[in-house]
Amino acid sequence: MIRLVILGAPGSGKGTHTYKIAKQYNLKHVVVGDAVKAEIRNKTKLGKIMYEYTSVGKFVPSDIVIDVLKSQVKDLEGFDGYIIDTAPINLEQKEAMKDFIIDGVIWLKVENYDMLRERILNRLICPKCRRVTTKSKHPEKICPCCGATLEQRYDDNEETFQKRIAQYEEKTLPVIREYQKQGIVIEINAEQEKKDVYAEICDKLNKFLEEKLKV
Ligand SMILES: [Zn+2]
Predict the structure, then answer these.
(1) 44: cis peptide before it, omega within 30°?
(2) CA distance 135 to 141
(3) What is the mean pLDDT of residues 15-25?
(4) Domains of the chain
(5) How far is the CA of 149 from the centre of ligand 1 (A)?
(6) Of 77, 155, 182, 188, which is least surrounded by CB within 10 A?
(7) Ligand 1 center to residue 164 CA distance, Å?
(8) What secondary structure letter does DSSP report for 142?
(9) What is d(CA 199, CA 107) in angstroms, rounded to the nearest whole number?
(10) What's the CA-to-centroid distance between 128 and ligand 1, angstroms?
């Protein structure tokens, strides 16, 4: 069983790479935000509770978000594990996830924020198959994988970008530091070309998993 978390600043490539990692390693791809939205849409017990928060513009409390995660990873039939994109994003969520076994944390590290801004403002995502691509590559906005209409995420704009970077530095970096103390962070230089980032992920992840098997 492989249980992973992927973390990184907005625009660091989490969506793209998680999609590929999940396919290659046969992992269930758990996108936290999508899972929350699906529960609300399907009016499940958790969904109804969360709707009471989101409908008035409040954040859903961490323990409820983590309950959603638990229900997502409960059924792993046909998978060799899971990769969670993106949680825990703050120490409170990390605490709420203390019952989760996390084997490794893939950290897509980017320090050049101008690069992140450019990536985000150019980004398109497929609502159907999660493929992430760019306006420059697909100006016609058709998903190259499944043919659905590509969308810009509603929060991919300058103002939200600044807020998300500040949040990441203030809330998520401390989580990564905690995992570093546990010795389970797989640090990736995500400032490289996409294919080189992915090659580094596979290389380091394979070594990490080999080490884990030895123990
Ligand atoms: Zn698609």
Answers:
(1) no
(2) 7
(3) 94
(4) 2-214 (3.40.50.300)
(5) 8
(6) 77
(7) 26
(8) B
(9) 14
(10) 5
Say whether pLDDT at 86 is over 90: no
Dihedral, CA of residue 189, residue 190, residue 195 and residue 201, to nearest 10: 60
For residue range 193-202, list pLDDT tens digits in order: 999 999 999 9
Quote the ligand 1 centre to 154 CA distance (angstroms).
18
* Residue 17 CA to ligand 1 centre (angstroms): 15
Q: Is it true that the peptide bond before 88 is cis, omega within 30 degrees of 0?
A: yes
Interval 129-157: pLDDT, tens:
988 899 999 999 999 999 999 999 888 89
CA of 125 to the centre of ligand 1 (A): 8
For residue 130, what pLDDT is reported? 87
Is residue 187 very low, low, confident or very high in pLDDT (cuts 50, 70, 90)?
A: very high
